[in-house]
Amino acid sequence: MDEVLLRSLTPSVLGILVRRGADFAAAEDAVQDALVEAVRAWPADQPRDPKGWLVTVAWRRFLDATRADTARRRREDHADEEPTPGPAPAVDDTLQLYFLCAHPSLTPSSAVALTLRAVGGLTTRQIAHAYLVPEATMAQRISRAKRTVSGVRFDQPGDVATVLRVLYLVFNEGYSGDVDLAAEAIRLTRQLRSAVDHPEVAGLLALMLLHHARRAARTAADGSLVPLAEQDRGRWDTVSIAEGVEILQAALARDRLGEFQAQAAIAALHADAPTAEETDWVQIVEWYDELARLTDSPVVRLNRAVAVGEADGPRAGLAALVALDDALPRRAAVAAYLHERDGDLATAARLYAEAARKAPNLAERDHLTRQAARLNTRR
Amino acid sequence: MAKYLLLKHYRGAPAPVNDVPMDQWTPDEISAHMQYMRDFATRLEGTGEFVDGQALAPEGTFVRYDGEGRPPVTDGPFAETKDLIAGWMVLDVDSYERAIELAGELSAAPGAGGKPIHEWLEVRPFLAAPPTISE
Fold it and tell me: Which of A273, A294, A321 represents a domain boundary (last residue)?
């Protein structure tokens, strides 16, 4: 049985229950129960209509959980247990679920958890493992999130941008565990793209595909980080790259540029270079200029300084750094790199060590410590 | 079984024998050190004695309550003299002696020149729940 295929039915099944009048929190629990039941029962006896099966079982679970425990009520409800025949408006329901789970009243961590469970069909245990928190903590986070959105009307239109931010978080801050959250984020973004026609949804999907394509090359056998310039480009996934580029080009052709399309364009230019030396840094700087117009984030200006350093030389890159706050994360690492390229190895080593002390995660800290060590121990 | 916390200090512990900061090692020496730490944790997972291991950023802030309706008071990061925890490993072992033995092995992780660091680690017993049979 294909568990991902099974989980892909989650949002439309949940949508049907809500359309039939089930409240969101109870319907979501019922769908989870039905998924668990499917995992148990399907390997031996796969139903011909998997979605119809899930709707029937989930609806029954919902009724079991909510109705008063009298025989009379049970007889009355029995007629309601039969699924409504005919196709349900699955696409709209799926989109509404994305909006609900990314509702602006939710904190980012709650929106991520609720999206993975209600739209992604993951279990609380899987989500807890992925984010390295106890299962009870994740269960509380999800049930609080469901209470928070319980008053939101299901047919109320939402903002695609909030949904994209949640999916971006799943992709970018996915940790470990038995679920591949990066792949899950791609799946959910793909599913969103089939539910809504929006160039930034395409932009985000392209961005994810282009970064995911580099994954095998990003870490060495011992787990250490391999920077972009040193990656074995033969290990990049060309199928992912081709798909990402195609999706991006179609989105850009619509002339409604947004930050995810611009970021994807930068990733596509890296993907397009057969070697690091052949990277079109001039065009990358132009895209960072676009991105700075769209977002004006200091992180964008920091990355732009790196690109300027490659396009116009390290001195130009260092000049672009001057206006940026010293406290900006990774600024010291960028300064170290530019000073090394400029030939000032002592300053570079000092800044690499400083950057290592400020590193936000172990992999970056180890990488930056190695860079300092490499310069300090050169013969 | 009893749980023990092995604490590694950035500052505040006595100086190790092989006292060279990591950014002065060669990249290969760093790799060897990382490998030793990974192997150590993997081995203890295999023996059923590993509970948790975490690393901490070198800067922290002290915070305290400052009265009703007022924001908390913060202080720090502090100057070089203060004690500073770098990270920990939690073990669940049969005896204090076993905890000491393992801390000794962890302290032998290779550093500059590929030689053991002889780093001082602090071993702290957890205060556990009381036993069911108390008399």
Answer: A273
A247 and A202 assigned to the same domain: yes
Domain that holds residue A202: 197-273
Is residue A346 within 8 A of residue A358, CB to CB? The reply is no
Contact A199, A206 (CB under 8 A): no
How many of the other CB atoms lie within 10 Å of CB of A102? 27
Our count of domains for chain A comes to: 3
A268 assigned to some structural domain: yes
A311 falls within a domain: no
Cα distance between the two ends of chain B: 19
Among A52, A71, A92, identify where a domain stops: A92
Spell out which residues of chain B touch residue A352, defining contact as CB-CB under 8 Å: 23
The answer to whether A57 touches A178, Cβ cutoff 8 Å, is: no
Place of tokens 């890159």: A317
**A362, A370, A375: best to mutate for the B interface, most B CBs within 10 A:** A370
In a domain, A26, yes or no: yes
Residue A185 belongs to a domain: yes
CB contact under 8 A, B24 and A376: yes
Edge-to-edge strands, sheet with B50-55 = B50-55, B84-93, B2-11, B122-125
pLDDT digits (tens, 9 = 90+) for A39-85: 999 998 889 999 999 999 999 999 998 875 445 455 555 555 554 54
User: Cβ–Cβ of B26/A356 closer than 8 Å?
Assistant: no
At B33-57, the pLDDT tens digits run: 999 999 999 999 999 999 999 999 9
| One domain, residues A155 and A101 | yes
Chain A with chain B: Cβ pairs closer than 8 A: 41
Determine whether the interchain pair A369/B35 forms a contact, defined as Cβ–Cβ distance below 8 Å. Answer: no
Rounded Cα distance, A110 and A108, in Å:
5
User: What burial letters (b/e) apply to B25-40, b meaning 16+ CB within 10 Å?
Assistant: bbeebbbebbebeeeb
- Domains, in order of start, for chain B: 2-125 (3.30.70.1060)
Query: What token pair was written down for A283?
Result: 């065009």
pTM, full prediction: 0.88
